[in-house]
């Protein structure tokens, strides 16, 4: 079952994006500084998204959702990212998990769970990293245990973003204790059957509202809560591309917000000296060129995925993996470049924390983009893939 087709749900484009824009302006933006200062969960923004139906956007209509496309959700992420990076990241990560369920869960029990996500506006989190695997999400030490139709899972997760606020956590693990590290499954760990033992705090430079603490995750439940497809297929066909598309859409929102501040600063300077082009106008033109590059990279790759999302031959190919990895590296690098350019334009007004043109939070959040799934690891992975790729 696919929700990625660009043809489906086109009538909902304007309402979904408009709702995200309204929530961004009226709810997320007023709370963003406090969320950042206190490193707290953006509860009011998530509640507003739930009330507006945004948490069920990617779920098909027949399962109680809005039947929106990935393009629509990505546009909503960009709008939210212009106002509060943390709220937008929580929304993006939730939708990544929704996409994995909608595209890879087929059992009646999991379809009922998806309906519950839509009906109750449940918030989903992810636990794919694990202590001792060095950030390699395609390998697990922990394994699914249990018998008589039940599972038990204990996972040492160095980070589960907003885990203590989620209604369910989708965790990776080896299929069973005898399975090799890369024979993984994706397990739905429901709140009522889940214990999270806090092992680390969260006081980071940016994205502070994601509350990305480390936990020991302990979960039980029926084995029907294990997603049907192998995690390798889920990762290559859905989790990796959707993650990079939604993350890059968020970074586009950050970059757009920085560009807007720089433009308003230059326009204010121009009004003070009518008939004279402000010195920073040239820098603004150069910034706009780089922002255009980011926009084309994000939109172009998003469009390509929409075209091949339901073709496993394409989504499991080396060329596809390289292009999706390249999107993450390029977008996460360009967003920092753009915010830095905006800072040079705004000068001390952008450097000051309490200024209409302050860029501190945007710059700190932008730097996080290269670190979440570190770009060095992604480039190393692409290097290995290119070594075995055949000439096209």
From TrEMBL:
InterPro entries: Acyl-CoA_Oxase/DH_mid-dom_sf, AcylCo_DH-like_C, AcylCo_DH/oxidase_C, AcylCoA_DH/ox_N, AcylCoA_DH/ox_N_sf, AcylCoA_DH/oxidase_NM_dom_sf. Pfam families: Acyl-CoA_dh_1, Acyl-CoA_dh_N. Residues 251-369 form the Acyl-CoA dehydrogenase/oxidase C-terminal domain. It comes from the Bacteria. Its cofactor is FAD. GO terms for molecular function: acyl-CoA dehydrogenase activity; flavin adenine dinucleotide binding. Keywords: FAD, Flavoprotein. The keyword Zinc does not apply. Residues 16-110 form the Acyl-CoA dehydrogenase/oxidase N-terminal domain. Belongs to the acyl-CoA dehydrogenase family. This is Acyl-CoA dehydrogenase. It comes from Antricoccus suffuscus.
């Amino acid at each position: 079952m696919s929700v990625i087709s660009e043809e489906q749900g086109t009538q909902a484009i304007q309402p979904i994006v408009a709702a995200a824009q309204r929530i961004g302006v009226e709810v997320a933006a007023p709370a963003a500084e406090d969320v950042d200062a206190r490193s707290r969960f953006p509860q009011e923004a998530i509640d507003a998204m739930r009330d507006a139906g945004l948490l069920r956007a990617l779920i098909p209509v027949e399962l109680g959702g809005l039947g929106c496309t990935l393009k629509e959700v990505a546009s909503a992420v960009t709008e939210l990212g212009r106002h509060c990076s943390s709220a937008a990241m929580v929304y993006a990560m939730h939708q990544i998990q929704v996409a994995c369920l909608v595209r890879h869960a087929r059992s009646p029990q999991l379809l009922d769970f998806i309906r519950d996500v839509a009906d109750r506006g449940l918030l989903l989190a992810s636990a794919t990293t694990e202590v001792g695997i060095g950030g390699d999400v395609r390998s697990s030490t922990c394994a699914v245990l249990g018998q008589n139709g039940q599972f038990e899972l204990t996972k040492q997760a160095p980070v589960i973003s907003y885990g203590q606020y989620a209604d369910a956590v989708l965790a990776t693990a080896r299929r069973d204790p005898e399975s090799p590290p890369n024979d993984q499954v994706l397990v739905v760990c429901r709140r009522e059957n889940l214990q999270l033992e806090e092992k680390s705090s969260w006081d980071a430079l940016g994205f502070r509202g994601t509350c990305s603490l480390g936990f020991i995750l302990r979960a039980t439940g029926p084995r029907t809560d294990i997603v049907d497809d192998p995690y390798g297929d889920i990762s290559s066909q859905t989790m990796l591309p959707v993650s990079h598309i939604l993350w890059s859409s968020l970074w586009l929102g950050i970059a757009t917000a920085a560009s807007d501040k720089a433009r308003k600063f230059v326009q204010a300077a121009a009004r003070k000296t009518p008939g004279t082009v402000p010195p920073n106008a040239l820098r603004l033109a150069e910034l706009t060129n780089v922002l255009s590059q980011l926009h084309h990279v994000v939109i172009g790759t998003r469009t390509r995925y929409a075209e091949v999302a339901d073709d496993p031959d394409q989504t499991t190919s080396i060329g596809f993996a390289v292009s999706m990895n390249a999107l993450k590296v390029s977008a996460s690098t360009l967003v920092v470049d753009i915010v830095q350019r905006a800072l040079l334009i705004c000068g001390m007004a952008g450097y000051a924390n309490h200024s209409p043109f302050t860029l501190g939070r945007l710059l700190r959040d932008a730097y996080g983009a290269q670190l979440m799934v570190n770009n060095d690891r992604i480039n190393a992975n692409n290097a290995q893939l290119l070594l075995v790729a055949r000439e096209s």
